[in-house]
Amino acid sequence: MSLLLRGLLVAAGAITALFVARDAPNFAVVEGMVAVLIIAAIVLALALTRKK
Which domain of life is it from (predicted)? Predict the structure, then answer.
């Protein structure tokens, strides 16, 4: 589980770094929001693919 979350935060950090500087004071907040959006997108994709 820890490896999954670490991978998610690495992906969120890479995406966030495209829009916000890493030394910005709100980088961690934006990174968390991007991580939540990634989780929501994964859940949505799983829900739509499993629907019959």
Answer: Bacteria
